[in-house]
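Question:
Now give any protein.
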Amino acid sequence: MNTLFSYSRVALVLLPVAWATAVPATFPKPDPVAAYAEMKLPMSDGRVWRRPIEDWPGAEKRIVQDPAWKQWYETRKAAVDDWMARRHDRAEWVAGWGHEFVSPKDGSFLIWSPDVPGEAGKTLASKSDPKVDVTPAIFRAWVVSFRAVNMGMVQDAAILWR
């Protein structure tokens, strides 16, 4: 599991916010409530949400017939299977603050991996600090990311099972 994947879920949350503030006039919407009205659910305050459309039979068919869908499915399934076989949360792990997963030397972010710090090696590293001792605060911050990735894998497993 690489660092890019572990932070991709955070990026998916932050990217729309950054994009919307950077280019607000790119897609003018004269009447957003009326657009796709048949696909939206009215809320009690008058706002609307799009109704999610699920097509599980179609997805199953595309996984069999479309090479790109098949590749996506096989790649995600292999990642989830590997995670489930090799990674296990432990009740004794106490989560801390994710922002503490930094080098005490210069505050640079540490390179995250799913390997348990202290078991896989005595030190961690950042791009600017090749040897960072694992402190209790750093370990607790690692636990935060581990559990976030773990919950992402749970969601992926549910989607793949469906």
User: Anything to note?
Assistant: Strands lie at 40-42, 48-50, 123-124, 132-133. The longest strand covers residues 40-42.
